[in-house]
Specification:
The protein is mainly alpha-helical and about 140 residues long. The chain has helices at about 5-20, 25-35, 40-50, 75-80, 105-120, and strands spanning about 55, 65. It has a two-stranded antiparallel ribbon with strand order 1-2. A hairpin with a 5-residue loop joins strand 1 and strand 2. Helix 1 crosses helix 4, helix 2 (about 25-35) packs across helix 3 and helix 4 packs across helix 5.
């Protein structure tokens, strides 16, 4: 399984914020630290905020902070949230019935099970298990 850069950046943001939970982080400083697109990271932060994982505020002294205790944020839930619009294979997409192997295909059930197990395994860990501390440069 391969995660999208969207999910990768989302996990990085959460891990970094968990390292300094009382600090407000701006999109610009995180984008600079991770060496990623500011625009793409803004979308990631917006998704995390819209789903209750981050609190954001605008203006001077603004930025984003964690909205929950890192020990309560399960990694599988984060991955599932951020990958929600990414189908593992075409036939998993809504209306994705173009597969010529259907209805005899037995792979779809196996992949569904594997995806569920992957997320369940990640849910055995929380954000607190992978806090990313500040780097002194």
């Amino acid at each position: 399984m391969r995660l999208t850069s969207f999910t990768d950046y989302g996990l990085r943001v959460l891990m970094r914020m968990a390292g300094e939970p009382d600090r407000h982080f701006t999109t610009a400083e995180l984008a600079d630290e991770f060496k990623v697109s500011r625009n793409h990271l803004a979308k990631v932060i917006s998704a995390l905020s819209n789903n209750g994982l981050l609190k954001t505020r605008r203006g001077g002294g603004g930025g984003a902070t964690l909205a929950q205790d890192p020990a309560k944020i399960r990694l599988g839930d984060v991955v599932e949230l951020l990958e929600s619009d990414q189908a593992l294979v075409e036939c998993f997409q809504p209306g994705g019935h173009a597969c010529t192997l259907m209805p005899q295909c037995r792979l779809k059930a196996l992949l569904t099970h594997a995806e569920q197990e992957f997320l369940a395994d990640l849910n055995r860990s929380t954000l607190a298990d992978c806090v990313y501390p500040a780097i002194n440069i």
